[in-house]
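User: My instructor asked us to take a sequence, write out its structure as tokens, and then describe one feature of it. I'm not sure where to start. Here is the sequence I was given:
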Amino acid sequence: MLICMHSTSVRIDSDTHRELKRIARDEHVSVGEAVRLAVRRYDQSTMGVQLAAVPSQDEAAWLDADLG
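Assistant: Let's start with the prediction itself. The structure tokens for your sequence are:
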């Protein structure tokens, strides 16, 4: 079953395109899927950095709040 997805084009330099093709080949996915995976990994990395940060005083107070 063919699923139609909205798509768009992005201009990138030849070196980046070559790297995307290499990643796609290594991961056994399409170039578009390689981009999707790269964005997801970036988001996960950013989230990890945020979660590893020392909480602010307000965040610590909220986390330590008595919910009972």
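For the description part of your assignment, you could build on this observation: The first helix runs from residue 14 to 27. Try explaining in your own words what that tells you about the chain.
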